[in-house]
Amino acid sequence: MNKRIRYGAYFLSIWLLQACTTTTEVVQQPTVVKPTQPKPVVTVKPTQQKPIVVKPVQPAPPPDIRGFRQQTYATWYNVIDHGNPTASGDVYDYYAMTAAHQNLPFGSQVRVRHIATGRSIIVTINDRQASAVIKLSTMAAKQLGVLGKANQRVSIEGLSVKRLR
Amino acid sequence: MFRALILLTLLSVTSLASAEIISVNSFINSMVNEHGFDKKQLQQLFKQVKKKNNILRVMKRPGEAKPWYEYRKIFLTSDRIKQGAVFWRKHAKTLERAEKTYGVPVEIIVAIIGVETFYGKQLGKFRIIDALYTLGFHYPKRADFFRKELKEFLLLTREENVNPLHPKGSYAGAIGYGQFIPSSYRNYAIDFDGDGQRNLWNDVEDSIGSVANYLRNYSKSYGWKPDQAVIKATKVRPNAVKALLDLEFKPTLTVRQLKQRGLQFATNKYDNYLGLLIDLKTEQGTLYWVGFNNFYMLTRYNKSNRYAMAVYQLAQAIKASYNE
Fold first, then answer.
1. pTM, whole model, 2 decimals?
2. What ipTM was predicted for this assembly?
3. Which of B166, B164, B162, B171 is nearest to B124 (CA)?
């Protein structure tokens, strides 16, 4: 009995699946595309003509990262990284308030808060980082109070995205 | 023997004093002959001028020889950063007008005034004439420089109709918010508030405009380049460091040319910029930067890489604080 219901359900689902496929096939049948024909020319009196508004081509607005929240660990660059290229094309500077992140867009301004102390800094994301930690410049790590300390929890809060210069 | 030594010391003291009198007299004479000053008036003026021994003591202190990372701590303080944002808010209109007129970013102007006088809070308490006289006649190492500035000061006060005994400034005779030495005042000060007179003694608007004007119109060959980067981190081939640092300290080579000489700069975005190799000592050893034209301009304010870097980094910090 139990088995029969199970089989019944099995076949029912197969039938349903087939029914679905069939329906899809019907929809997907090639439609005959008529060659596009020129629209009939309608003469419009100049007075009736609507003014043509040419919208200026605007660059895509920067992504909104205001809702971004993450808790992770802080790491920092090595002093020998000073002068190395970053993934954004910027050159890494020991003193700049920058950081590498796994996926936040370049130019992201984020507030990084040291959970143990409540101290916070704002850094610009200009580099990539394979793992989920945030990698701070030496000066940023120093100002946050995490430089040289292992396993420091930080929270990241997205603020805005600015164009990198 | 001992007595002879005392006698000798006494002799040398008196001879120094008389040499000084001779040089003050010849200074007065040159002001009379070359610039039409009244001899009696000048003699009268110099009777009221005082030698300041504490200035000579300050000059002997080796404070300027600090490594960059120590020097940096003096200027990159949270108080100086916060006060910079306060100064910015207070004078935003004037500062933005100065940036628009001269192309020098607001944060750079604010940082210079912040480094020089803590936004006008440390204008100096020495009479400028005492400072310039003391250093011009009692500080042989740079006497020529300060005597020339003393001359410029007398010309300036005559032009600006100011009693030369009144203005106060730093121990080195620098004037106002932006600490202009008298020759710079004469060459670069402008009337930026439109009241018909340039006044760096105590007018903050004229001071802001004059700092920007100084950087923009420094000379025929060099001036601030709007929208150009100031400085970027770099690496350099170890065996090329010395030759690159030994180059004349003027931006005459392009970044492309510096790369051919061993600069390992990780981008080609600035290849056509003029550049200089800059080395600074951090807590973790010497690091390198390539300073562009605008970094060089900051060293025209004070001939020191540490000074220029302090202004640049303070400017960035003030900007971040202002935007927050």
1. 0.83
2. 0.86
3. B171
